[in-house]
Amino acid sequence: MEIKSLLLTLVALISFCSVVHSFEPNPLQDFCVADTDSSVRVNGFVCRNPMLAQASDFSLMGLNLPGNTLNPLGSAITPATVAQIPGLNTLGVSMVRIGYAPWGLKPPHIHPCATEIFTILKGTLEVGFVTSNLENRFISKVLQKGDVFVFPIGLIHYERNVGYGSAIAIAGSSSQNPGVITVANAVF
């Protein structure tokens, strides 16, 4: 009787201690071009009639153009998310181009909905993140042109131009809309 009770308790503990993962599920159709005029929001945008899809729904021009880095942070983001490319709706990916003036900064921030893969196209950037486990470890690296770094989902991270010239990076995200929370703005 005692063994049966112990086993039931063990099974219950295992059931309650299972890890929960969140992700954007695979789409059930080839594509779902966002209907940005609809007021309905269900994990993205409502789909437009697929017969009305055009090439412009799946493309964005001008990612090669520099953003304005003449601001207090010395950085500029050009997004390529569902807001700019309606064809990304429900596909679970997006990207941004980030330009940095000399000594420019992307201050500590998080993306609550996405892991980020970061590639340096020009310049020298220091990047880093803080782990969320009990140690709260700081992990950082200086990256050069062609280097890649990954920021795990939901962790506080930053990028800083440590070179003397401008820098450019492309960051891909595992979400059509990764979200961004700048730590200083949220806390203060």
UniProtKB/TrEMBL annotation:
<dbReference type="InterPro" id="IPR019780">
    <property type="entry name" value="Germin_Mn-BS"/>
</dbReference>
<feature type="binding site">
    <location>
        <position position="116"/>
    </location>
    <ligand>
        <name>Mn(2+)</name>
    </ligand>
</feature>
<keyword id="KW-0052">Apoplast</keyword>
<feature type="signal peptide">
    <location>
        <begin position="1"/>
        <end position="22"/>
    </location>
</feature>
<dbReference type="GO" id="GO:0030145">
    <property type="term" value="F:manganese ion binding"/>
</dbReference>
<dbReference type="InterPro" id="IPR006045">
    <property type="entry name" value="Cupin_1"/>
</dbReference>
<dbReference type="InterPro" id="IPR011051">
    <property type="entry name" value="RmlC_Cupin_sf"/>
</dbReference>
<keyword id="KW-0479">Metal-binding</keyword>
<feature type="disulfide bond">
    <location>
        <begin position="32"/>
        <end position="47"/>
    </location>
</feature>
<dbReference type="Pfam" id="PF00190">
    <property type="entry name" value="Cupin_1"/>
</dbReference>
<comment type="similarity">
    <text>Belongs to the germin family.</text>
</comment>
<feature type="binding site">
    <location>
        <position position="109"/>
    </location>
    <ligand>
        <name>Mn(2+)</name>
    </ligand>
</feature>
<keyword id="KW-1015">Disulfide bond</keyword>
<protein>
    <recommendedName>
        <fullName>Germin-like protein</fullName>
    </recommendedName>
</protein>
<keyword id="KW-0464">Manganese</keyword>
<dbReference type="InterPro" id="IPR001929">
    <property type="entry name" value="Germin"/>
</dbReference>
<feature type="binding site">
    <location>
        <position position="111"/>
    </location>
    <ligand>
        <name>Mn(2+)</name>
    </ligand>
</feature>
<feature type="binding site">
    <location>
        <position position="157"/>
    </location>
    <ligand>
        <name>Mn(2+)</name>
    </ligand>
</feature>
<feature type="binding site">
    <location>
        <position position="116"/>
    </location>
    <ligand>
        <name>oxalate</name>
    </ligand>
</feature>
<dbReference type="GO" id="GO:0048046">
    <property type="term" value="C:apoplast"/>
</dbReference>
<feature type="domain" description="Cupin type-1">
    <location>
        <begin position="63"/>
        <end position="187"/>
    </location>
</feature>
<feature type="binding site">
    <location>
        <position position="111"/>
    </location>
    <ligand>
        <name>oxalate</name>
    </ligand>
</feature>
<dbReference type="InterPro" id="IPR014710">
    <property type="entry name" value="RmlC-like_jellyroll"/>
</dbReference>
<keyword id="KW-0732">Signal</keyword>
<keyword id="KW-0964">Secreted</keyword>
